[in-house]
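User: Predict 1,4-alpha-glucan branching enzyme's structure from this.
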Amino acid sequence: MKKVFYLLLLVAATHTACKKAATDTPEPTPVNQTADLPAGAKDGVAFINNGTSAIVTLYAPGKTSVALIGDFNNWSATASVMKKTSDGNTWWVQIDNLNPATEYAYQFVVDGNLKVADPYCEKVLDPDNDQYIAATVYPNLKAYPTGKTTGIVSTMQANQPVYNWKNTSFTRPDKNNLVIYELLVRDFTTEHSYASTLAKLDYLIGLGINAVELMPVNEFEGNLSWGYNPSFYFAPDKYYGTKTALQNFIDECHGRGIAVIMDMVLNHSFGQSPMVQLYFDGAKPTTSSPWFNVDARHPFNVGYDFNHESQATKKFSKDVMKFWMQQYKIDGFRFDLSKGFTQKASTDDAQFRLYDAGRVAIWKDYNSYIKSIDPNFYVILEHFAEESEEKVLADEGMMLWNNLNHDMNEATMGWLGGSNFQWGFYTNHGFTKSENLVSYGESHDEERLNFKNIRYGNGSGSYMIKGNLATSLKREELIAAFLFGMPGPKMIWQFGELGYDVSIDFNGRTGDKPIKWEYFSDPSRKALYDAYAKFIRLKKSNSIFNSTNFTYNLAGGIKYIKLTEGSNTVVVVGNFDVVNQSANIDFGAAGTWLDAVGSNVSLASGMYTANLAPGEYHIFSKVALK
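Assistant:
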C-alpha cells in the first residue's frame, strides 16, 4: 500500500486547481439539443470520414450544458455546442473540416464555467509541467495553447504515428518461473526514458529476469513521481517518452523473452483528473459523482476513492484494462492497493483486511473480464487481506504479492528473533499452487535491505555486518539463495541485485534517488549480481525448484529448504547467525552431494553435519543441476 506522504500535499494543490477551474470567467451558456449518439461514436474521440471529422463524447450525467472548445474552433464555447443523449448521461458533437495530420488541443466547458480535459484522451498538455520535459525524451511536443484557455488540455490527431510491432508471437514465461524486475523509469537511468531503459536491456538479460514490472506510467500529477497519483488513464506520461517509444520498449522486451507488467492504479485518482473535477465541491467529490466515493471507505486511501460497485466505475476500469492490453500488448497488471476495491467501511487495517464478499465479487468480475480478452494474462494483486480471502482469489488464478521484507531483513542483519521467513511458502497461505504467490524481499515500498544491513547489522568479534560493505553484500547473497530456493514466482526491486544501500527516505520517500550504475563496476557488488544470475538460472532451468514436495526450517541461525523431485533432492542451507553454528540436517541419502556454489561433500549416511561460518551457505543436490 502506498504511503506516499507527499501526495497528501498534492491533494491541497489540486483542490486549488479545481476551485480555479470552477471560477474562471464563465463562458456563454450554450443551448444544447437532445440526440442519440451517431454510428461510430465511442468514449472520447472517434475519427470518421478518413480523419476529416471527429465525433467527441463526454460521459457527464446530470450536467446542464457542455461545449467543446479547441484549436479547431478558436476555443469558442458557442461554436461547438454538444448534444446530449436522451438519457441525459452522454454529450457529443461532430467536428468537421479537420486535417488528419494535425494535432488539435481541446477541452470541454461544462455548465458554462468548468473546463476539463477528456478522460479518454491519449495525451494531455500541461501548462505547468511540460516545460521540464526534455526534447530528447519527447521530441516535437506540441506547445500549450497559452492565452487560449487554462488548465490541462487534451489532444487528438487522426493520423498520429503508428508503431509497427515486430514481435507478434511472444510466449509469456510460465507463472512459476517468473522472475520479475520492478523498475521505476525515473530512477533507473539519468535520462529517465523508455529509450534509455531499453539501452540497459543487456544488463537485465545478463541477470536472467524474464519480466519487467513498470511502476505506473500513465499520466500522473507533476513529473517527479512514483506514479501513484494518476489523473489520466489512457495517456502515457510524457516525462518518460512518447507512446511509440513505450510500445517499442515493450516490443523489444518481448523480442528478448521478457514480459512487461504494468502497475495499474485504479483504487484512487487525484484532483487533476477531469472525472474528479466534474463532480467536486471544492473539498471532495459530491454525492452525484458516478465514479468516486464522497469519503474514502478505507484508512489507506490517498487522493479520491473509486467506488468499484458503481457501474460507471466498472465500465471505466474495464475500458482502461482493455486499452492497455490491446494497444500496448502488456502482459500483465500489478493492481495497486487491490484491497481498497471495497465499499465496506473500515477505520483500521484489522477491519480493512477482513474477508469482504463484495470485494471478492469485484475482483472475480475484473479477473473474468481480463481473461475473456487474454486467458494467459498475469493478474497480480497487492492485496494483503485475510488469508481466506486471498485463497479465494488465488483459486481463481490471480497472483498475490507476498512481502517478506521484514523477516528477510532481520535475517540478513543477523537478528534472528524475527527472521523466520516461512511465509514465502504458498502452503502457509492455504494456496494450492505456488504460482499464485509472488514473493519478494524488496519492493519500491520497502526499505532497502542493504541500507539496514550496513546501519543496523549485528556482529560478533571480527565478524561485523554493520558498517561492513563486503559482509553486508555476502548477507544479501545468502538471502537471495533462499528466496530463489522457494517455489513460485519472485520479484526483485531495481538494483537490489547490486546491494543498493540508499534509504527509501532519501530526498523524501517518493523523491528521486541517486542512480548508481557505477555499482556494476565494483567487484564486490558485481559478485552479488553474478550470484543472483546463478540463482535465477538454477530456478528457471531446474523444475525441482517448483517441486510440491518440500520441507524446511527457517527459524534460528541454521536455516534450510529441502526440495525433492523424482530421484533428485536439493538442499539450500545457510547460517544466518553472526557466530559459527552446527548444521544437522537429514538429506535423506548417503553418497556424494554436489554443491552449486562451493565444494561437494560425501556423506557416509543421510545426515549432513557441518560447522558453518556466519553467512556461509550451500546449494546441494543429489543430481547435478543445469
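Residues 523-541 form the longest helix (19 residues).
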